[in-house]
Amino acid sequence: MNLFDYVGDRWSRLSLQAWLHVSEVVQATLLAAVIGILIGVAVYASPLGSALATALASTILTIPSFALIGLLIPLFGLGVIPSMIALVLYALLPIVRNTIVGLGAVDPAVTEAAKGIGMSRFGVLTRVELRLAWPTILTGMRVSTQMLMGLAVIAAYAKGPGLGSEVFSGLTRAGSANSLNQALAGTLGVVILALILDGIYVLIARFTVPRGVRV
């Protein structure tokens, strides 16, 4: 059986796994964005705080994915929870770093002008600074999403959802019938989904970033 026949015969299962894979990555990215933006907002004005937050987020990326998931399994068991925690932790660095960079790059004259017309500090942050920093923040989310598409495959080690189960199952059955097709179907599926999500980010940027501040 060739790869196309394999995918056609198992389309319902593969499409479900693909949907679960995308859903897991998108949810992890959004949760990491909320956490990362809040951290960035809290520390961007402090060089020491910014350096500390970036260093901590960078340290997480030095932990091998198998090791991190393995440490989470005794605490949270198998399934979605350890997979999501690991993905959120790995997604933080690009978002935290880009939030700090984006907010730090806002021209002080713009914020002073906003204060001069009576805006509160919260209003300046939400209506001026975050809007101007949004293109950079969105780039961080885009990087995190692409990184998580691959890492979500490793999450199958903890019985996480997605195409990783196809890849792992195919590799563990290496040499048996359709094992290569199964591993290839999962791998190519992840690549195709990553390209689709990247295209969606391009559209999001097009509709949410004013032309004058696009990066």
Mean pLDDT, as a whole number?
Answer: 90
Secondary structure category: mainly alpha
Beta strands, count: 0
Sheet with the most strands, sense and barrel status: none
- Percentage of residues in helical conformation: over 70%
In words, what does this structure look like?
Keywords: Membrane, Transmembrane, Transmembrane helix, Transport. The chain has nine helices and no strands. The protein has about 220 residues and is mainly α. The longest helix is centred in the middle third of the chain and has 34 residues, at about 120-155. The model has no long low-confidence stretch (mean pLDDT about 90).
Quick overview of this protein structure:
Helices cover 81% and strands 0% of the residues. It contains nine helices and no strands. The termini are far apart.
Key words describing this protein structure:
ABC transporter permease; 215 residues; mainly alpha; transmembrane; transmembrane helix; MetI-like; transport
